[in-house]
Design the sequence.
C-alpha cells in the first residue's frame, strides 16, 4: 500500500492513501460497527416488530395508526389511555394534526414504544 505522511510541527499529522484503500478500510469499519450493534442487541434484545407493520409505515400509513392497530387498540382506547380524544387521534393519524412532544410521550407509553417511533418520517 502506498501512502504519504504529512508532518506538522515535526510530527506526523495526516496520512494520504489511495481511494481504493480508504474504501476498503471504511467498509471494514462499517462491518465492525454492524457486528457490535448485533452483539449488543443479542445481549439485550428489545421488542421486534413484524415486517407487515414496518411495510405499512413505509407504504405511507401513519406510524401511530400502524402501531395502534398492531397493538389491537381502537382510537377510543388509545385516546382514553393517553388522555386525549378519539377525534384528535383520528386527526393525527390522517395527518391533519401533529402530536406535540408531551402527547407523543403519552401515546408512546400507552402503546409501549419509544415516542419517536410514532412520528411520521419527514421527506
Sequence:
Amino acid at each position: 500500500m502506498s501512502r504519504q505522511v504529512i508532518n506538522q510541527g515535526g510530527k506526523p499529522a495526516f496520512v494520504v492513501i489511495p481511494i481504493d484503500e480508504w474504501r476498503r478500510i471504511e467498509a471494514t469499519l462499517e462491518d465492525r460497527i454492524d457486528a457490535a450493534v448485533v452483539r449488543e442487541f443479542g445481549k439485550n434484545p428489545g421488542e421486534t416488530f413484524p415486517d407487515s407493520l414496518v411495510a405499512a409505515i413505509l407504504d405511507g400509513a401513519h406510524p401511530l395508526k400502524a402501531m395502534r392497530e398492531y397493538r389491537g387498540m381502537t382510537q377510543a382506547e388509545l385516546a382514553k389511555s393517553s388522555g386525549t380524544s378519539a377525534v384528535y387521534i383520528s386527526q393525527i393519524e390522517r395527518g391533519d394534526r401533529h402530536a406535540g412532544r408531551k402527547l407523543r410521550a403519552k401515546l408512546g407509553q400507552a402503546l409501549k414504544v419509544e415516542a419517536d417511533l410514532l412520528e411520521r418520517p419527514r421527506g
